[in-house]
């Protein structure tokens, strides 16, 4: 099976504007931003989507969410607000089969989305 786009970014085979990294997750700017600030945060472990996570991945999922909030604060989004989005499946807007969270902010985000 070939690597996903995000696995290639994690392996530094494809360049990205990285804003945060630790042993478990990597956060980088989206190349097609949907908001003035649009960062993706991905687990380094290849998990296709949220619906395919296992019970033993709870700690990683919690870490992903906590770091998403920390990255949003690092980017100054905590002052005015931001949105965290996880897409699952084609109808959910998933385009890369590697679990990731979108951090969106820098403008008012309407509801409902899409």
CATH topology: HIT family, subunit A
Counting helices, strands and paired strands, the structural category is alpha+beta
Sheet-strand content, in percent, reads 15-25%
Order of helices and strands: HEEEHEE
**Helical amount:** 10-25%
Gyration radius from CA atoms, angstroms: 14 Å
Q: So, CATH architecture?
A: 2-Layer Sandwich
The figure for the number of domains is 1
The CATH superfamily bears the name HIT-like
Briefly characterize the structure.
The protein has 114 residues and is of the alpha+beta class.
Describe the structure.
The structure is a single chain. With 114 residues, this protein is an alpha+beta fold. Helices cover 20% and strands 22% of the residues. A five-stranded antiparallel beta sheet has the order 1-2-3-5-4, with helices on one face. Strand 2 and strand 3 form a beta hairpin. The radius of gyration is 14 Å and the shape is globular. The chain starts with a helix and ends in a 9-residue tail after the last strand.
């Amino acid at each position: 099976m070939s690597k996903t786009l995000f696995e290639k970014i994690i392996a530094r085979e494809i360049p990205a504007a990285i804003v945060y990294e630790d042993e478990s997750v990597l956060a980088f700017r989206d190349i097609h931003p949907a908001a003035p600030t649009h960062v993706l945060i991905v687990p380094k472990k290849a998990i296709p989507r949220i619906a395919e996570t296992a019970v033993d991945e709870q700690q990683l999922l919690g870490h992903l969410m906590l770091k998403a909030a920390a990255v949003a604060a690092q980017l100054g989004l905590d002052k005015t607000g931001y949105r965290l989005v996880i897409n699952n499946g084609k109808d959910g807007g998933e385009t890369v089969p590697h679990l990731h969270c979108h951090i969106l902010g820098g403008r008012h985000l309407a509801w409902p989305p899409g």
